[in-house]
Each structure stands twice: as C-alpha cells, then as structure tokens.
Amino acid sequence: MATPRRPQRDSLTNEFDQAMKPVSLWADAWRRLKKNRMALAGLCVILFYFAACLCSPVLPIYPYAEQVVAHQNLPPSFRPAGQVMIETRTAYLKQTMEADDRTEFSADEQAQVEAMVQDVRSNPVHRRVYLLGTDNLGRDLLSRILYGGRISIMIGLTGTLTAVFVGIALGSISGYVGGRLDNLLMRFVDIMYSLPYMLLVIIMMALFGQNIFNLFVAIALVSWLTIARVVRGQIISLKNAEFVEAARSMGASTGRIIFRHLTPNTLGVIVVFATLMVPQFIMQESFLSFLGLGVSAPMASWGSLVKEGADVMELYPWQLLAPAITMTVFLFAMNFLGDGLRDALDPQSKNKL
Amino acid sequence: MSPNEAVILQVKDLRTYFNTDEGIVKAVDGVSFELRRGETLGIVGESGSGKSVANLSVINMIPSPPGRIAGGEILYHGRDLLKMSRKEIREIRGNKISMIFQDPMTSLNPFLRISTQMIETIVLHQRLDRRAAREKAVEMLRLAGIPAPEKRIDQYPHQFSGGMRQRVMIAMGLSCNPEILIADEPTSALDVTIQAQILDLMKDLTERLGTAVILITHSLGVVAGTCDTLCVMYAGRFVERGPTGLLFEAPMHPYTRGLIRSVPRLDRADGERLASIRGQPPNVIDLPDCCPFYPRCDQAMPVCKRKYPPWKTLDDGRTVGCWLYSEDA
Amino acid sequence: MLRFTLRRLFSLIPTIFLIISLAFIIVRSAPGGPFSSERNTTPEILENLKKKYHMDESLPRQYLRYVGGVLQGDLGPSFRYKDYTVNQLVRQALPTSMLLGSLALAVAALAGIGVGILSALRQNSWIDYTTMSLAVIGISVPLFVIGPLLKLFLAIRHDWLPTSGWLGGRHGWLVLIMPVTTLCLPYLASIARLTRASVLDVLRADYIRTARAKGLSETAVMLRHVLKGALLPVVSYLGPTFALILTGTVVVETIFTIPGMGRFYVQAAFNRDYTLILGDVIVVSILMMVMNFLVDILYGFLDPRISYK
Fold it and tell me: Residue B265 belongs to what H/E stretch?
C-alpha cells in the first residue's frame, strides 16, 4: 500500500502532519508474518535444522558410516556406550536365566560379562556417548539422522528450486505469448497430470537403479507442472493490466515485460508454493526410500532411516521414533511457515491459521 | 412529496469505527439526517468517504470483529434500531428497510435460481405460501421490466445480462413493499446507457409504491434527476445538506462547489481545462481535530486547521459544516 | 448431457493408450529381465522361456501383441507367478485395495468436510485453532510414519488391534481400523483445511451480504446459500485425493501386510514381472480416470454455470 507522494513536503508526514511510514509489499508482509507465532516458531525450527546440518562435519559426533559391531542396537542414553552395552547384555542374560528358572548366572554367562567389562575398560571406543542410540550395525543414530537430514533437505531444496525455475520459465512464456504455444503447453501439462505419476516413478526407480540422480530426475519431472500452471494463470490475469500497457508504450520488449514486470508480481504466490513444495519433495523421496527405492546404503535419508526403524520397531522402538519425529517436526515447521507466508503475502485471505 | 410528510427515519450522530492494525478507522464520525415518507435522499461522496458504511450501519450489518457502531441513534418510527435484538432487526431487513447493492453480478447467488432467491424473502416476511409468493415474485419481475417473467424466474443469474440482473435486484428489494429502500451505488457497475433506464425504473416503482429511497452514489449526474434532498459526505461526515435544486444552484461548501464545477459540461468553450479538486482524500486514521478538507480548499482560513467546523442551519433549511459560514471563525 | 458423457469417455481412450505405451517403454528399456534372477537355467531353457512369453519377437511386435490382448480384456500371464494370469491376480487383489481406498476416501471426505465447516463457523476460537493445528500436523506426517507408529502403540505395545492381515481372518472388521485410519488421516486434514478456506471465502461474498440484508436467519444463510458454493472446490478436489489415496495404498498395504494391488505392484517392480506391472498400471489408471470423470459430472450437477454444450 504505497502512499501518494507529495513533492513539497517531507516524505514522512502528510499535510495533516500525520506521520506516514512508507511501506513496501515485502515490509508489510514481514510485519504480518511476525505476528503469526506458529509461523515464526516454524522459521526458528527450520533455521535450527539448517544450522545443525551445515555444522555437522564439525560437530563432536561420530562418522555416520562407521560401524562398531560391539555397539549394535544400543538404546539412547547420556552414559558412555560401554556401560550401556554391559547393562543391555546383563538384562538379556537375566531374561534367559529367568526363562530357565535359574536364580543366578551360569559360569559361561558370567565369563561373558567379565570379558565385556574388561574390554570396556581397555578400549577407548566404549567411552562414546550415543545420544540417540545406535542401529543394527552399530552406527550412531544421531549422526545418521543429521546426515540423512542433509540429504533429505538437499533433495527438497534442489528439487523445489528446479521445479520453480522450470515452472516459472515455461509458465511465464506460455501465459504471456498465449496462442498455439500456450495451448500446446497446457495440453501437455494436462496429459502429464493424468498420468499415475507415482506408479511410474516406482517403476523407474526399481528398474533403472537407485541412485540419487535417477531419484532426482524422477521427482523433479512432474513437480514443475503446478507452478507452471499457477504462474501462467497469474500472468494471464496481469497481462492486460494497465502497467503493462504503460511499459509497452515506453518501448519495452516482450522479454523485458515478462521478466522485469510480470514475474515479480507473481513472486508472492511462488514463494508460498515453494515453501510448501519442499516438504512435499521430502515426503516423496521418503516414500520411495521407505519402499526401498530411494537412496541406498551407505547413504541415508530420513525415509530410509524410518524404514530401517520400522523393520525393528518391536524390539528397538527408538530407531523408528528418533528419525520419524525429527522428520515430522521439520515438515510441520515448513508447513506452518508456508501457511504463515501465504497469510502474510495475501492480506485478503481470511485463513488466519 | 411535501415537506410536511412524517419523518420515518432519524439518524442521530452515528459513529462507526473499525479496528485495524494501523489504528482506528473512523469511517463514519458523526452523521445525522432525517428521512420522510416517500422522500428520495441522495448521499454523495468519493470512494472511502464512508457513505456505504453509514447505510450498512442503519440495518446493523457492519462485520463485527473489525467494525463496531461506536455511538449514535437510528430511530425508525421512534424505535432505536441499534438497540434491537437480532431477531427484531431481521424482521425489519428486507421487509421494512430493504437494501440493494452495487454489483449485480456478485450480489446474486450464482448457484440458486432467481425464483428461490425471491421466494425465500416473500415467504419469510409476508407469510404467503409458496404458490402465492411465486406469483408475487413474477409480478414484481414484470413491473421491473423483465420480459416473460414466468419463464425467466426459474433461470440462474448468469443467464441474465448486467442491466437485467439489477432489475431483478430491484424487484427483489421491493418485493415486500418496504418503507425504505437503500440503494448502494445501484448503477455504478452498469453501462451508461443502462444506467438511465435503471434510474428511471427505480424512480417509477418507488413513486408507485410510495417507498422512501436513500440513494448512495459518487456521481452528481445520478442524483441530479432523482433526489429531493442531497447530502454531501467527506471523510466520514456530512459537509452540506439541503434540497437538490438549491445545492446545485448555489453550493455553499467549497467541496460541493468543487464537485459541481468538476462535472464536464457541453456548454463550456472548447479547449478549456477541466476543473478538478487538487489533492487526495485524507487517510481517516487518527485525523487531528481540523476540517478534513482544508488541504484541498481554496478558501481555507487559519481556524480551519485548528478546529472542526460547526454544523450550521441556514434560513432556507440547508445545513453546512464550514467555517466560512460561522461567526466564531 | 449424454453427448457430454460420451465425449468425455472418448477422450479418456488416447490417454489410456499413452499410459500403456509409456509404461511399456519404461519397463522394457530397463536393464535386466524377468528371468535374470532365475537359477539353474541352461541356455535352452532360457530360449524356451523366451519363446513361451513371446520375448523372442521384436519389441514393436510384442507391443502390438500386448495391446491387442488388452483390448480384449486379457492382461497376459504373470511372468513371475507362473501359474497365474495377471487377470486372476488383479481380480484377487483389486477388491481389497478398492475397499481400503474407498473407506479411506469416505472417512476423509465426511470427517474432513465436517471439521472444516465447524472450524470456519467458529473462526479464531480455540476449536478452530486446535483443529487447524492438528490439520497441519496431519498433512506433515507421512503415511509410513503414522502407520508404523499406530502399529507400535495399538498392536504391539498394547495388543488392542491385530498387527496385520485382512478381512476373513479371525479378527473380523477390527483389522480395518488401523490401515483405514492411516490412509485417511493426511487427506482428512487437507480436506478440512480446504473446506474451511472455502467456507470462509464464500462467507465474504457479496451474495451472502445480500442474503443477510434480506433478513434471513444465519441458519438459512448457511444451509441454503453458503454450502453449495463452498463445497464445489472440495468436490473437485476429491478426484486428485482418490488418486493420492490409491498411491498411498502401496505403503499402507506393505506396512500392514494387506494382500492388495499396492503390495503386488512393488513386488512386481522388483521382480521385473512386466505384465503384472503393466496390468497394475492400467487398472489403477483406469480407476483414477473413472473417479475424475465421476467427479467432473458431479461438479457439473452442482454448479449451474457449467453447461454441457
């Protein structure tokens, strides 16, 4: 809501000596966003995740691919791994003992425990602390989750950026140029929309091999469609607006009109879409990983971690809960932020939540 | 209509405010007027002057979270409409006081037939059965100039043209024979050629039925031919009020003068510049106590900047709010 | 009306052809074949197998042969499950998936619309705030997180519900609860949000202001004027929702070991069982298209502005 300029006066007061704050679209939106507590909380959470993932190479955690066989399936704990290991073993032996109706350990079992204690004292690796426990190959779950986060978030971001660029480019051109090009493109979009997309992606991943490139191509292939449609719609409605006439009358070329004048107007919608697309991408990739079709070992993504956790959830539930909760919290932070951005950028919208 | 007709509606010092992020918007800040039986009252003002809000306040239809009626009385036959219960005011709406709106394309429900939309009002207020209500509705459509009304009543709004839709709105508004019809910019969304037709229709029907009309518009041309009395509104308050003829002949408030002068005329010399009022309407948030028109006024005096002008009644019954006419300047 | 229907049906045919062809191309251009994992095959046996399944013919001929078969309703033999044809497998698995999907859709639609309307009417109240926050959570939690978590807490830790299986077993209809709940939750959440937004939009419309100015009670305004317009976007969203639900059955059937099309599909993909893959894709695509078609017709009924010309 720009206020009219009065050249003779100080730009900050009008003729009534009322102070006027010049407000740009983005400043206005930021002010509204600040009021939305859930969206701000979401933003903080996301920044925290980004920071954690970026810093992970320098954090004091253990390499995500390093397997310590002795540390298999340890539960999360603040205490050193050695102790936890001994306790778990002892508890297990106790169970067998009770099942056999005995009241004390056999010599063999006692020897086992003794050997363990010795090992713990001598080997420094047992002094590690696994805050989130370990998986079935003795890998630190916390570092795997951080690493998986980097992969998942990267897939989400790059996929979204690609979809956004391709979508904006094709949508703008199609919307502005119109005519046969537009018709052709929209028919193409319609046809692609009617394909059972996920099914085809599954086939592709299963048959062409699971590597991150295929994964990326498969997911990005269809996601630009929505953005292209939305951008095209916006461009078409703005195309005949007066400021375009003004630009044209000053001799602006078609390219300049499209990219300097029309596209910035659609930015608001695109920002909202992009923010909401990142979680969708992450979910799709996780979906594939869950079926065993996503990233493959030793790489990890949140989806593959959830899959591994689901396989052993009866015995070691934290292996499912830790990645599941981490991923879910990130996704709903992004969704809250996306909603908040939508409300902030579109003041007419009554969707307060 | 003679000046001795009974007063049916009295609005006294109406104030309607809206709470926004940037402050309190005083959309209507002390508006008073009277309406007589059968009178046509015009309210003229720029966009944002508060004219629509004032009239929505009369039937208490201000959306309540941001808006509230902060003061004043609205006496209909002596009863204060603002103090009525929801049920009581619903009996008045559509029945005794009816309101029609600006854009007929969006003011009619696109998903329901015209018959449904008209019959529901008649059945609600006049306690007729559906068959009788339908006959009444068809009759109203016929009076409003819709051809073949018995067939067209079963159609949907998108099957009518803009002018036809507004005729339907008028028929719907008058179907319960209200005492007062409030028409909020009824012709602003229509082609110029259709505007005249609609105005004639409204004049004709309301004279026939004896309905008093409050006509809200930004166009002087519209009020010139139709209204008995004229109120000019600026920044939430009236600045001048009086019989239409007098106002046009000898406008008193500088704003009214500016408005009348800015109407393009055929009898001016070619090449003469069009007159306009310089400046922009004010932002009605936190206006200081001054005359809101003074930055744009050619006859502004020092006192205009310091205090809001008093409302003065003159000998010929006209009223004006301007320091030029007050001895205390 | 009839012409409209027929025309729409006709336009579905080229799309189906496109899908079949696309799937065929993708499947056949992949490395490996259905017999690569066979053990102990001599070259002669391999030759015979290939002959039996017509894989010795050129690819275009195989394509034509396949399409010809499909047109007659024959989806071919399964490459992997030697004694079954794809038709038989589909006939077994399809009703299961359909039941699962339809129940999930019905619950998501009815509950979602109800919650959405309630939230819209009580905008900014604690009800609104709570349900909409839950809805955001609902769309953020993936199916394969909800499923295992439900299974963990309701079936493993507490033994209230059976962990897997389908109707016909000793648990009867209890076995439906977890899979249907898992599958419907994200879509219930989206439908609730969409309905709420739509109702709020309609409430702001000019024609609602007119209705109120005529003196109608709030109930009359809601039921007669608001609902129809507000539900239109929701109805048209049901088509894509159904497609998403069908996709979701792949995961849900895997988690809860339900013998439906979804589970078959993933296994077929891994086994390179070409005909089963293609058959699955065709059937699911047809289902999606039929649903979209029905939704379009329904929408046309509800919105008088759409003409059938």
Answer: none
Mean pLDDT over the full length of chain C: 82
Q: Are strands B212-217 and B67-76 parallel, antiparallel or unpaired?
A: unpaired
**Does A211 touch chain C if contact means CB atoms closer than 8 Å?**
no
Q: Indicate the residue type of C296.
A: D
- The C-alpha of B12 sits at a distance from chain A's nearest C-alpha, in angstroms, of 28
Count of pairs with CB atoms under 8 A, one residue in B, one in C: 71
Cα→Cα distances B49→A15, B285, C161, Å: 18, 12, 66
Spatial separation of the C-alpha atoms in residues B95 and A285, rounded to whole Å: 61
User: Does residue B1 carry a pLDDT above 70?
Assistant: no
Q: What is the pLDDT of residues C104-133, one digit of tens each?
A: 999 999 999 999 999 998 888 888 889 988
Parallel, antiparallel, or unpaired: how do β-strands B180-184 and B212-217 relate?
parallel
> Nearest residue of C to residue A290 by CA position?
C144
- The residue of chain A with its CA nearest to that of C128 is A353
Task: Count residue pairs from A and C with Cβ separation < 8 A.
Answer: 135
CB contact under 8 A, C215 and B120: no
Min Cα separation B244/chain C (Å): 28
C2-38 tens-digit pLDDT? 777 777 777 777 777 887 787 777 777 766 666 665 5
75-104 of B, contacting C, C-beta below 8 A: 90-95, 98-101, 103
- CA C222, C223, C224: angle at the middle one, nearest 5? 100
Q: For chain C, positions 215-234, list CB contacts with chain B under 8 A.
A: 215-217, 220, 224-225, 228-229
pLDDT > 90 fraction of chain B, expressed in percent and rounded: 40
Band of pLDDT at residue A5, cut at 50, 70 and 90: very low
For residue B283, give the nearest of A18, A31, A32 by CB distance: A18
The verdict on a CB contact (< 8 Å) between B288 and A17 is yes
Q: Determine the Cα–Cα distance for residues B240 and B251; give it in Å rounded to an integer.
A: 9
Output the six-digit token pair for A311. Answer: 């396989």
Query: Does A351 have pLDDT greater than 60?
Result: no
Q: What is the mean pLDDT of residues B6-10?
A: 90
Beta-strand pair B40-44/B212-217: parallel
Closest-CA residue of A relative to C280 is A199
**Above 90 in pLDDT, residue C54?**
no
> C17: which residues sit within 8 A by CB, 6+ positions away?
C67
Q: Are B73 and B82 contacting, i.e. CB atoms less than 8 angstroms apart? A: yes
A340 to chain C: closest CA residue: C136
CATH superfamily for domain A42-61+148-344? MetI-like (1.10.3720.10)
A334 and A275 Cβ atoms separated by less than 8 Å: yes
User: CB-CB: which of B280, B285, B295 is closest to A4?
Assistant: B280
Strand residue runs (E) in chain B: 7-20, 23-36, 40-44, 67-76, 79-80, 97-100, 180-184, 212-217, 229-234, 237-243, 311-313, 319-321
Listed by start position, the domains of chain A span 42-61+148-344, 77-127
Among residues 60-119 of chain C, which lie with CB inside 8 Å of chain A? none
Residue in B closest to A15 by C-alpha: B295
Answer yes or no: are the C-beta atoms of B54 and B14 closer than 8 Å.
yes
Q: Is A348 a residue whose pLDDT tops 60?
A: no
What is the ipTM for the molecules in this complex? 0.85
**Chain-chain contact of C229 with B106 (C-beta, under 8 angstroms):** no
DSSP B18: E
Q: Which residue has the tokens 């004694």?
A: C83
Q: Starting at the edge strand that comes first in sequence, how are the strands of the sheet with B319-321 ordered?
A: B97-100, B180-184, B212-217, B40-44, B229-234, B237-243, B319-321, B311-313
| A:311-340 residues touching chain C, CB 8 A cutoff | 313-314, 317, 320-321, 324, 327-328, 331-332, 334-336, 339
Cα radius of gyration rounded to whole Å, chain C: 24
Q: What is the percent of chain C with per-residue pLDDT over 90, rounded to a whole number?
A: 18
Q: Do residues A53 and A142 lie in contact, with contact meaning Cβ atoms separated by under 8 Å?
A: no
